C-alpha cells in the first residue's frame, strides 16, 4: 500500500512538472491550439459549402471530428517531450532520483491528457462561436468530450513509444505526424466515408479514428451510436495494451 502511495505521489510530481512548463512557456499551448482552429475555419468557410452531410449541418458534423483531430495531433507532443528530456539529459537525472520509473511516462501522458481537456473545451467554444450546438443532453455532451480525451490519451502512448525510439526532438516531431496525417484524412473527420473511393472507404470505415469520431459525433448530436461506442473502447484498450508495455520497454532500454 505504501509503495502505491509513493508511486502515485511521484506520478503527481511529474504531471505537475510537465504542466508547469505550459505556465512558464504559454506559447507552447497557444501554438498547439492555433492549428485546429485554422482547420475549423478552413473547412467550415472554404470547403464546407461543397461538402454534403445529409440530415446534419456541416458545422455540427465537422466540430466533433475536429475535436478528435485536435487531441490526436496534441498527442504527438508526448513523444516530442520525451525526446526533449532524453536529449537534455533529464531522463538520466530522473533515474538518479529515488522515484518510481513509471512516474516519468505516466506523468507525461497524464499531463498531455490534461492539456487535451483544455484543447477540447477551446474547440467546443470555437465551434459554438460559428454555429455548432450539442443536440444531446448534458451527460451525452460530456461523454462525447470524454471519449475524445480518452482516445487522445491512448494515442499519447503511441507517441511516447515513437519519441523513445527516435530520441531526437526533430525526428520525434516528423515521425509523430507522418503516420497520423493519412489516418486523419482517411476518416470521417471532414467528410462522410461513403464519398471516398471503394478501396479507401473500406479502410476508412474500420479505422479507429473513424469509429471514435462517429461515437463522439453521435453522442454530441443525439444520433444512434450503434456499435461504434464499444468498437472505439476496444480500439482504445487495444492500443494501450500494445503501446503501454512497448513504451515502458523502450524507456528501460533508453536509460
From TrEMBL:
<dbReference type="InterPro" id="IPR051784">
    <property type="entry name" value="Nod_factor_ABC_transporter"/>
</dbReference>
<dbReference type="GO" id="GO:0043190">
    <property type="term" value="C:ATP-binding cassette (ABC) transporter complex"/>
</dbReference>
<protein>
    <recommendedName>
        <fullName>Transport permease protein</fullName>
    </recommendedName>
</protein>
<keyword id="KW-1003">Cell membrane</keyword>
<dbReference type="InterPro" id="IPR000412">
    <property type="entry name" value="ABC_2_transport"/>
</dbReference>
<feature type="transmembrane region" description="Helical">
    <location>
        <begin position="142"/>
        <end position="166"/>
    </location>
</feature>
<feature type="transmembrane region" description="Helical">
    <location>
        <begin position="229"/>
        <end position="249"/>
    </location>
</feature>
<dbReference type="GO" id="GO:0140359">
    <property type="term" value="F:ABC-type transporter activity"/>
</dbReference>
<keyword id="KW-0472">Membrane</keyword>
<keyword id="KW-1133">Transmembrane helix</keyword>
<keyword id="KW-0813">Transport</keyword>
<dbReference type="Pfam" id="PF01061">
    <property type="entry name" value="ABC2_membrane"/>
</dbReference>
<feature type="transmembrane region" description="Helical">
    <location>
        <begin position="173"/>
        <end position="193"/>
    </location>
</feature>
<feature type="transmembrane region" description="Helical">
    <location>
        <begin position="117"/>
        <end position="136"/>
    </location>
</feature>
<feature type="transmembrane region" description="Helical">
    <location>
        <begin position="28"/>
        <end position="52"/>
    </location>
</feature>
<feature type="transmembrane region" description="Helical">
    <location>
        <begin position="58"/>
        <end position="83"/>
    </location>
</feature>
<feature type="domain" description="ABC transmembrane type-2">
    <location>
        <begin position="27"/>
        <end position="254"/>
    </location>
</feature>
<dbReference type="InterPro" id="IPR047817">
    <property type="entry name" value="ABC2_TM_bact-type"/>
</dbReference>
<comment type="similarity">
    <text>Belongs to the ABC-2 integral membrane protein family.</text>
</comment>
<keyword id="KW-0812">Transmembrane</keyword>
<dbReference type="InterPro" id="IPR013525">
    <property type="entry name" value="ABC2_TM"/>
</dbReference>
Amino acid at each position: 500500500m505504501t509503495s502505491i502511495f509513493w508511486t502515485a505521489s511521484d506520478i503527481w510530481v511529474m504531471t505537475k512538472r510537465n504542466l508547469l512548463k505550459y505556465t512558464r512557456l504559454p506559447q507552447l499551448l497557444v501554438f498547439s491550439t492555433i492549428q485546429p482552429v485554422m482547420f475549423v475555419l478552413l473547412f467550415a468557410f472554404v470547403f464546407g459549402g461543397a461538402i454534403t452531410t445529409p440530415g446534419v449541418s456541416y458545422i455540427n458534423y465537422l466540430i466533433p471530428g475536429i475535436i478528435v483531430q485536435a487531441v490526436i495531433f496534441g498527442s504527438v507532443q508526448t513523444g516530442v517531450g520525451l525526446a526533449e528530456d532524453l536529449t537534455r539529459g533529464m531522463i538520466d537525472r530522473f533515474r538518479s532520483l529515488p522515484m518510481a520509473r513509471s512516474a516519468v511516462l505516466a506523468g507525461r501522458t497524464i499531463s498531455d491528457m490534461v492539456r487535451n481537456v483544455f484543447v477540447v473545451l477551446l474547440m467546443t467554444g470555437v465551434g459554438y462561436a460559428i454555429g455548432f450546438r450539442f443536440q444531446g443532453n448534458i451527460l451525452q455532451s460530456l461523454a462525447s468530450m470524454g471519449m475524445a480525451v480518452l482516445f487522445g490519451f491512448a494515442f499519447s502512448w503511441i507517441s511516447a513509444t515513437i519519441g523513445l525510439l527516435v530520441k531526437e526532438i526533430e525526428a520525434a516531431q516528423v515521425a509523430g505526424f507522418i503516420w497520423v496525417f493519412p489516418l486523419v484524412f482517411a476518416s470521417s473527420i471532414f467528410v462522410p466515408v461513403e464519398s471516398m473511393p471503394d478501396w479507401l472507404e473500406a479502410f476508412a470505415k474500420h479505422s479507429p479514428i473513424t469509429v471514435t469520431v462517429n461515437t463522439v459525433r453521435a453522442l454530441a448530436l443525439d444520433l444512434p451510436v450503434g456499435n461504434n461506442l464499444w468498437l472505439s473502447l476496444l480500439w482504445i484498450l487495444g492500443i494501450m495494451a500494445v503501446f503501454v508495455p512497448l513504451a515502458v520497454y523502450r524507456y528501460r532500454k533508453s536509460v
